Amino acid sequence: MDKIKMLDGECWWGGKVPSGCDMPFDENSDCTFDIESRDGENDQSASLFLSSCGRYIWNDNPFAIKFNKGEISLECAYGTDFEIGEGYKNLKGAYLAAAKKHFSFNGELPDKLFFTSPQYNTWMELGTDQTTENILNYARGILENGLPAGVLMIDGGWQEDYGVLEFHKGKIPDPAYLIYELHKLGFKVMLWTSPIVSSAGVRFKYLRSKGYLLKDKDGEIAVRRWWSGFSAMLDFTNPDAVKWFRGQLDSLVECYGVDGYKFDAGDASIYCRDDDAYVKTAPRNHTTAFNIMGEKYKFNEFRAAHNSGGRPIVARLHDKNHSWDNIGLNTLIPNTTVQSLLGYAYCCPDMVGGGMIGSVNSANDTDGELFIRWSQANALMPMMQISLAPWRVLSSENYEIVKKSICLHKEYGEHIYALAQNSAKTGEPIFRNMEYEFPNEGFEHVCDQFMLGSDIMSAPVLTKGAAKRSVKFPKGEWADKEGNIVSHGGETKEFDAPIDTLLYFKKVK
């Protein structure tokens, strides 16, 4: 076990995105954090921790880290050495040093449309009832209600079965017509898919005979529990399995004009350390193999990812509850902070209002205030995704406020894309937590405001019923959206923030 002493005032971020609300860890923290653990696996992760004092901890494999009253203990079950980077002054310096050495930024990035227009997903609106009629009605509703076209993701339920990448003949009898109509409306079309294979039927038997399915420690096909039951899964450490799966995906592109894929599942929880994989590896490294398999598609989205910082993948936060403080709106800024610090620059903060199916569906169970504040918090983040139709579940007055947030995101779309291009070249995040951009100014524990690039600061209201909030300004001159200087920096000021107002500021000097 390796041990290092914490420095005075030092704060740490890293490991797993879902734990963002517990960060940063500081000299008063007393907790153990295990990247190898399969708890909290439903998001991105990396074997990396970063310090506000310019240090980083890296290992090629998942590891456990313990913070105990000023001492850090490190242990890796795989026996690989720890790399301790030091001398980089602050959080930004530590991040850039780690990114240069361990991330894959190479100029490639997802398609521009992800950044310049809102994305739409049929999941919360349609569930698995993904029919031609329902999908087209949803797409037409977007345009009829004054929203711009963008990426449209057809979620799970379009296919014949898990592992059978063919359109369900009863739901979508003429897929070419559906894709053509969606393209004509101005949308790019993505389909839901995953490594999961139903453990019965002709496709399962074929994949088993070819050796493309993951095997357990006894050499039998691994059948594991996931959210839709018990199923087998493709072994993406096997290059032939990768080739077969890509062939299925490419066939849909060539035959019907599908633009890309939402790659779901692939979490570490469905893999075991002793699996008899084509290449034996840590559970989280199977997730990395999944990311590598799908990164070739310019239109992609992953929820599960590991050690894939810098790859040209869209990283979406795990499904959020329709809640202010129960894995809901409260997680957006802390978790997106960790996404960005782990190299997942092209990040999406789940669906506006929450993407956890069943948590909200109708106007009766939709908190209009929450939906509005969520859209405002999301407006100046790298991406914005809509699923539950706001024009259906909100009052007309509340819908107009949400539409204002969506329009603001589109207004900043070219600016966001320019930041994404910069990320692809330099590794610099698009979304930046305050400590990253303004070190040594007391922002280590500020997790309710953030930076878009280096000069736009967003300070959304995150508390139910609040109509004002305090904003902590870094050094420099700051202007409001009308261009009026409101702060000369280094101070905290309170502003009115009625329900139709997002507070955001531009650094002008």
UniProtKB/TrEMBL annotation:
Transmembrane segments: none annotated. The keyword Hydrolase applies. The keyword Calcium does not apply. One of its GO terms (biological process) is carbohydrate metabolic process. Residues 427-504 form the Glycosyl hydrolase family 31 C-terminal domain. It holds the Pfam family Glyco_hydro_31_2nd. InterPro entries: Alpha-glycosidase_related, GH, Glyco_hydro_31_C, Glyco_hydro_31_TIM, Glyco_hydro_b. Keywords: Glycosidase, Hydrolase. Residues 130-408 form the Glycoside hydrolase family 31 TIM barrel domain. One of its GO terms (molecular function) is hydrolase activity, hydrolyzing O-glycosyl compounds. Belongs to the glycosyl hydrolase 31 family. This is Glycoside hydrolase. It comes from Qingrenia yutianensis. The lineage of its organism: Bacteria, Bacillati, Bacillota, Clostridia, Eubacteriales.
